[in-house]
Every structure is written in structure tokens, then in C-alpha cells.
Amino acid sequence: MSNVSPEEAARRVLDSLWKGRPFPVDPVWIAGQFGIKVLETDLPEEVSGAIIKQKDEDPVIALSKSDSNNRKRFSCAHELGHYAFRMDAGQNEYEWVDLRGKTAGMGTKPEEIFANKFAASLLMPEEEVKRLSKEKTPPFLMAQYFGVSDDAMNIRLENLKIAA
Ligand SMILES: [Zn+2]
């Protein structure tokens, strides 16, 4: 288990790499800062993303090239969550394949929950969501601002207990 909460882990990444930069957050660029290669490729239909870390090599994140831009962004942020989780656990070698539906937003394994919360916190930081909410920004405009799907935005608002 991780010692750091996913929200805290995402906040640390944003504080060190995305301070003063505009939204939407670019998870592919952030991955690059960690030396992680991000590939868009033909993945099996049921696979939404994967992260592969071979011993003493840089990790590789694989995204499905037929996915929408928003979905790729969320998948990339989610895989970064796996990276953060494994880093925290001190693992140098692993392979994780995410399947659609089973893990998207309703994962029950601690690592999946971590990766989903990490992704949501990275792309939709709490303070920024609250700022927009105070300005009465409609959720669909928030979704555009953060570069996420309406579904991802609504789940985030629900989890932060902000009425949409
Ligand atoms: Zn996952």
C-alpha cells in the first residue's frame, strides 16, 4: 500500500511541474518529465491503456490510438497513477494492463482506486474545480477547460461534493 494519498501525490506532481501553467494539464508532457515514453498504438479492443516497466529501463505507457483525445488524456493520467503507486512501493519492474469497463472509474483494487483518484486529481485539481464552481461555471464548460469527458467531470464534482 502507498503511504501517500493519490490526491497528495498528484498535487506534488502539479506543484513541481505545472505551477503557473495553463489548463488543461498535459499528462503526456508530465510523463515525459519523468522519463516515461508514451506511445499511441493499436491496442486490443478491451484494453484502455497499459504501463510497462522493465528492469533498469524507462517505463512505457501505451494508449489506444483510436480513443478520443479526452480518453487518451485520462488513460495517460491513470497510468501515471500506477507509476506513482509503484514508485512509492519501490518497484523497479512491473507490467500493468488496464481493461475497459472493469477498471474505468469503478475499480475496487486499492491500486486501481489510487490510479483513478490520482488521474482525477491531476487533471481536475480540487482548488481549480472549486474556483470554477464558485464562479458558477457549468459542468460542461469545466469539462472543456480541464480537457476531460463530461462523465469524468461529473464524477469529480460528485466526489468533491460539489453540486453540478
Ligand atoms: Zn489502472
Rounded mean pLDDT score? 92
Strand order of the largest sheet: 1-3-2-4
The proportion of residues forming helix, as a percent range, comes to: 40-55%
Structural class estimated from helices and strands: alpha+beta
How many domains?
Answer: 1
Ligands, ions, cofactors = zinc ion
**Proportion of β residues?**
5-15%
Order of helices and strands: HHEEEHEHHHH
Number of helices: 7
CA-CA gap between termini: 33 Å
Overall radius of gyration: 15 Å
**Major sheet size, sense and barrel closure:** 4 strands, mixed
User: What low-confidence regions span 5 or more consecutive residues with pLDDT below 50?
Assistant: none
Q: What is the number of strand segments? A: 4
Tertiary shape:
globular
Spell out the blueprint of helices and strands.
Elements: H1 6-17, H2 27-33, E1 37-41, E2 47-53, E3 60-64, H3 69-88, E4 94-99, H4 110-123, H5 126-134, H6 139-146, H7 150-159
Parallel strand pairs: 1-3
Antiparallel strand pairs: 2-3, 2-4
Helix pairs in contact: 1-4, 3-4, 6-7
This protein binds zinc ion.
Characterise this structure:
The protein has one domain. It has seven helices and four strands; from the N terminus they run ααβββαβαααα. The chain has a four-stranded mixed β-sheet with strand order 1-3-2-4. Helix 1 runs parallel beside helix 4 and helix 3 crosses helix 4. It is globular. The N and C termini lie far apart (33 Å). The site of zinc ion (ZN) has 6 residues, from helix 3 and helix 4.
